[in-house]
Design goal:
Blueprint lengths: L6 E6 L4 H15 L4 E6 L2 H9 L5 E4 L1 H10 L5 E6 L7 E6 L14 E4 L5 H13 L8 E4 L12 H11 L5 E5 H9 L8 E6 L7 E4 L5 H12 L9 H7 L4 E2 L7 H10 L3
Parallel strand pairs: 1-2, 1-3, 6-7, 6-8
Antiparallel strand pairs: 3-10, 4-10, 4-11, 5-8, 5-9
Helix pairs in contact: 2-3, 4-9
Length: 270
């Protein structure tokens, strides 16, 4: 095999564990007879550009990066796979119990903390869904936490900032992803005497592997073969799957991104 036969995959280094994950994924692909290497980027905007310029073969993209790739390729890009945990994601509206917010309209005049501007789960979609349910967000005092811009909310830092603001009384309500809420509850870091979840958004989908339509069929077939050959029951595969937060790789589906496309159009955020 030459380097021309090797699949070059792009991923964003939002956490040190990303190096370990993709080194182990590279080993797994090699064991499946599929040469693969990876390149790490500091932000998704650069990764999208490198994919569109043909410098990488496949990109592991957030939902925002995924739909932007589709938009810029006139919907000719290829969706190759996603995690089971990427399906039916949701956002939550967390409120202080002393803020007297019992329904969405009670947010009017209140302080609403939101995650980073490029976070699908902590800002873009919750604000869109709240508007769809009749809330005029122009009547809400938005407190943004634009932490780790370029990472599209992957680090979860802006969501933790939202929770801290709520706990400290600097905000009356806040939007975060379901995953952060569940993890913080499990870790005992949520004081249920102070905070409660008031609302859960409609479901939406999260990350996706993207490629250009010019990618060689052999690379597509090899990638899909190695990816879907991973099984939770296999003791060699499970540690990798656990680190990446899934039990099973799934085929792509596009319906779960419709709300994000609508939100980006409404907010002029393409």
């Amino acid at each position: 095999m030459t380097h021309h036969d090797t699949i070059l995959l792009g991923a964003v280094a939002y956490d040190p564990k990303v190096v370990t994950i993709w080194e182990k994924m590279r080993d797994h692909f090699r064991d499946e007879g599929v040469p693969m290497d990876f390149a790490l980027f500091s932000n998704y905007e650069r990764q999208v550009e490198e994919l569109l310029n043909g410098h990488i073969d496949i990109a592991w993209n957030t939902p925002l990066a995924h739909v932007r790739v589709q938009k810029r390729t006139n919907n000719t890009s290829l969706s190759l796979g996603m995690r089971d945990s990427d399906r039916d994601f949701s956002s939550r509206l967390i409120v202080r119990k002393d803020a007297k917010i019992h329904r969405l309209t009670d947010l009017l005049g209140k302080r609403l903390a939101v995650g980073s501007a490029d976070s699908t789960q902590a800002r873009i979609l919750p604000l869109y869904f709240l508007g769809q349910q009749g809330l005029d967000t122009s009547g809400v005092h938005i407190i943004p936490f634009d932490t780790d811009l370029g990472k599209h909310g992957d680090t979860g830092t802006s969501e933790l900032d939202v929770l801290t603001a709520l706990m400290e009384g600097r905000a009356d309500a806040g939007t975060i992803g379901e995953l952060i809420w569940v993890l913080q509850l499990a870790a005992g870091k949520i004081d249920s005497n102070i905070l409660e979840s008031l609302w859960v958004s409609p479901p939406f989908d999260h990350c996706m592997f993207d490629a250009l339509p010019i990618l060689e069929p052999a690379k597509i077939a090899g990638f899909e073969h190695a990816l879907f050959a991973m099984h939770w029951e296999n003791p060699h595969h499970r540690p990798i799957l656990e680190m990446e937060g899934l039990k099973q790789w799934m085929p792509p589906r596009e319906s779960g991104y419709d709300s994000l496309r609508a939100a980006l159009s409404e907010f002029n955020r393409w």
